[in-house]
Amino acid sequence: MNKVLYIILISLFSLIIISCGEDKEEYSETSVTNTDNKTTDNTTSDNTTSDNTTTDTTAPTVTSVSTTADDQSSVALTDNITVTFSEAMDKTTVTTNVSNTTCSGTLRVSSDNFSSCVQMSSAPASSNDNKTFTLDQSDNLTGGTNYLTRVTTGVKDAAGNAMSSQYDNSTGFTIPLPAPANLSATAGYKQVALDWDNVSGVSSYTVYWDNATGVSTSSTAITNVSDDNYTHTGLTGGTTYYYKVAGINSSGTGTLSSEVNATASSSQLIGGSMQGEELNLTTVVTTIAGTGSGPVPSVNGTGTQASFNIPWGITSDGTNLYVVDYGNHLIRKIVISSGVVTTVAGTGSSGSADGTGTAASFNQPAGITTDGTNLYVADESNNTIRKIVITSGVVTTLAGTAGSTGSTNATGASARFNGPAGITTDGINLYVTDQSMIRKIVISTGAVTTLAGASGQTASTDDTGTAARFHTPSGITTDGTNLYVADKSGHSIRKVVISTAVVTTIAGTGSSGSDDGTGTSASFGQPFGITTDGINLYVAEKEAHRIRKIVISSGVVTKVAGTVHGGSMGNTDATGLDARFRQPWDVTSDGKDLYVADSYNYLIRKID
Question: Cα–Cα–Cα angle for 273, 562, 539, nearest 5°?
Fold first, then answer.
């Protein structure tokens, strides 16, 4: 009995232990802790549930705008603007203004403290799991302008949480001024002229330059350039210069332009020839145009296929020669590089009609000069000064009246000339040899005055202005400061200071001869045409059939080409004194070589 009772008690005790273990295991399996502290679902021992769920209430924040948050120093005009949040956003709450410049939407960009806002091309585009939104400003940004970005509290994250406060970036981003477009560089005499398109919003420009490619903001700077062009002066002729330009305003230096370069010229067009660099002549004489027969009607062609009838005046713009075909009443053009000869103006018959090209007429035109844009012709037998626009061939009469002779100083058609022969220009005025006078014509007005000499008074008197005397002056040239006159019948070379009209004799005894020497110890035989490279004078002697050289600084006179003594003429191509000319009437230079109007050989000759 006791043994049975003992077994029953042991069994009951075991059942109690098993029951407690099962209750503990059940509780352990139904109790779960949510480690993110948002949701905890506990099941109690009586199988009921206690709901302890916690909702996401963290407000989103702006982590960056564009690329460098509040300090964006340079954003391109075409860049989009990006705003990145701390978490995924509700896309429907991220909006912007797309229809006008009012400040609407939750993402705003403004340059005027949000009085108005940049109009975007479309709604913000999302990326980065709806954390990043991109604004397409559709090129509505302005160079040199600072912009702020604002995000309003209307934006919400995916859980519906709004930003706790409005976001304004403190510094914003600056759109640099765009690069000046179409920068160009044009070489001139010891200078380079720059030109570019205006950039809106600039206060000035800076020009950066160097003598090698790779110009940067570290290069030499020319600051405070107020216009959209600049001429860089005082350069070394023959040297290449490289340039870039940037706009400047209160926001700083804009984007650099593309690079350009130009080689400063060592020569400039003055007085109808290229000047500034001394000619280095081998004195080899060749024929570049003309048949050598005459008098003949004009024939256009190339080189020796073309024909002339007493070529008198000759001038150059450095690329072309312009020749007065005296006997054919024409103005001819020769392309230096090819020798192609064409007619610029004139009918081929004498007349005085203004017109265009071959519709205009001349009457034994003599001298010619150019400023690079126009030709100016001393129309000798018409007693007028004519102007020809090179690009169009339009011919007009600048001063004098055809058929009327005299020495009246007046303006335009009221002025009178008496067989004007030589002509030159300093770019502002024309200077004309007119019988025994040197006349001045203001190009812009046509006003004619007498600079030196007197009508009907022939001599070789050095003096000032109208007290000086000339003896049939013919050729004339200028270096921009002085005039140099070939006083044909005075067998001398005269100098006229333009500013004072002081006249002096720089070379020639006053008697016909062929002696080299210095100044007035040298002699000439009817000096007819004259030109200069700015350092030396070159003289065409009609009677002596040769070309002479005068060093301006010293007055030293030497022979360049043609016969040693007067009287020996011909058309021989050769070197120096072995070459032959026949009454050369004029001479010019393209900055490298001399060109001679060899009048009674009916040729155009070149001296290398």
Answer: 35
Cα(583)–Cα(499) distance, rounded to whole angstroms? 33
Question: Where in the chain is CATH 2.60.40.1220?
Answer: 59-175
Q: Given this model, what pLDDT does residue 7 score?
A: 52
Token digits of residue 513? 């001869």
Q: Which CATH superfamily is domain 184-266 in?
A: Immunoglobulins (2.60.40.10)
Question: Which part of the chain has CATH 2.120.10.30?
Answer: 269-607
- Work out the pLDDT band at 20, boundaries 50, 70, 90: very low
* Statement: residue 278 has pLDDT above 80: yes
Neighbouring-strand partners of residue 316: 321
Query: Angle 472-426-318 (CA atoms, 0-180°, nearest 5)?
Result: 100
Architecture of domain 269-607: 6 Propeller (2.120)
Contact 429, 398 (CB under 8 A): no
For CA atoms 555, 556, 562, 564, give the dihedral sign: positive
DSSP 8-class letter at 181: S
Query: CA nearest 155: which of 98, 82, 106, 84?
Result: 106
The position carrying tokens 């003598």 is: 211
Which of 8-17, 319-328, 367-376, 513-522 is predicted least confidently?
8-17
* pLDDT over 90 (residue 251): no
**Distance (Å, whole) CA 65 – CA 60:** 14
- Separation of CA 501 from chain center: 37
Sign, Cα dihedral of 354, 360, 364, 365: positive
In 3D space, the residue among 317, 340, 313 whose CA is nearest the CA of residue 326 turns out to be 313
CATH fold for the domain made of 59-175: Immunoglobulin-like (2.60.40)
What whole-number distance in Å separates Cα of residue 87 and Cα of residue 253? 38
Sequence-separated (6 or more) residues with CB below 8 Å from residue 193: 185, 186, 187, 229, 230, 231, 232
User: Mind listing the pLDDT tens digit for each residue in 569-607?
Assistant: 999 999 999 999 999 999 999 999 999 999 999 999 999
Domain boundaries for CATH 2.60.40.10 within the chain: 184-266
- Identify the pLDDT of residue 535: 96
Closest listed residue to residue 301, CA positions, set 335, 330, 276, 271: 335
Q: Please name which of 207, 204, 161 lies closest in space to residue 59, comparing C-alpha atoms.
A: 161
Dihedrals φ, ψ of 351, to 5°? 175, -175
CA distances from 99 to 266, 369, 483, 529, 597 (A): 59, 64, 71, 76, 74
DSSP-derived secondary structure letter, 10: H
| Gap between the Cα atoms of 588 and 590, Å rounded | 7
39 φ, ψ (degrees, to nearest 5): -135, 125
CA 157/CA 126 separation, integer angstroms: 13
Query: What Å distances lie between residue 579 and 284, 294, 603, CA to CA?
Result: 8, 20, 14
